Records
---
Amino acid sequence: MIFITAKFRVKPEHADQWPQISAGFTNATRNEPGCLWFDWSRSVEDPNEYVLVEAFRDGEAGAAHVQSEHFRHAQQTLPQHLVETPRVINASLDQDDWSLLGEMAVE
């Protein structure tokens, strides 16, 4: 799978509305056949920062994502709400779901 984590620093005046601002992009991406997950979280340390954790089945699904109409639309509409260019980590992993954190196993 292609595993991606990105940090989005949102302008303070848009931070509370970010889930609604990004909703169209989020929903369209989640409906892509190759999307495994696409989940936003808000930082507990910085209320203006959102972290996106996403995964796609493979490189082909990742390429389809960045070539989609909703991705191109997001490129045009989302940056105006941001303080800076999002930072990203992108890796290919030989798995297709989350692994268990054995060091914190729940009995």
---
Amino acid sequence: MSMSFDQYMRDMVQPMRDELTSIGIQELRTPEEVEANLPGDKGTALVVINSVCGCAAGQARPGVAKALQNDVTPDHLFTVFAGQDKEATAKAREYFAPYPPSSPSIALMKDGELVHFIERHQVENRSAEEIAEDLTGAFERFCR
């Protein structure tokens, strides 16, 4: 029995997608979906650049989930999946200048402008709790 590589990857990453969508984060899978949701959104938007790496599993996704338990949260919640939805991820990253591409990473936008960004190197060396604290601080500052 053989399975295509694409099918294998879809099956392998689905639980990683579900970890964010199950807590109310909307996946943006195409550049058109990114364009329709990010640039002009009024209010605040959290954008998680998801990844298959260990720091996404151990720190980024759990940190985001914990942060979203805060009383103050962004108006909109989005995710793109690096390495899987490549074109959507590339389009989302256009809004994160001057930061270079990194995954996982987490962006907070207000009225279409980037106001807070957590790069991969800031995920790798911190716990999920520290990432949640960072995010909740940004939520308190920008999402009121």
---
Amino acid sequence: MKIILTHEVSGLGAAGDVVDVKDGYARNYLVPRGFAIRWTKGGEKDVAQIRRARKIHEIATIEQANEIKAQLEGTKVRLAVRSGDAGRLFGSVTPADIASAIKSAGGPDVDKRRVELGSPIKTLGSHQVSVRLHPEVAAKLGVEVVAA
């Protein structure tokens, strides 16, 4: 099935790309979550608009991505969350929580869709998080989750 991506999807493409994927992947995952729309002849007009919006939010060069990477890796991120007695969290830490914690810690503004968690963060302590700034540049960030 041909679709137009409206958001960046790891391993598939960036916003505005027209890609061909399996029908079930498009119907059950990409379209319901708003990551893509079905391709139509009229939808080609949307591609130009999506690409313009992507250029506004996109980090243009590798040098710029490396500068932001240096800022991120120098930022200490602490996240205060509610937890139980054994150190387990009530819920989990989301990429949106991490993006807002980076901003409040004085770091650069990071889109929540660029924060990649290896596995859900459900315990107190230090955790490693990857932030994909550019297709070739990713920053490793230490996040310390503490009890509120």
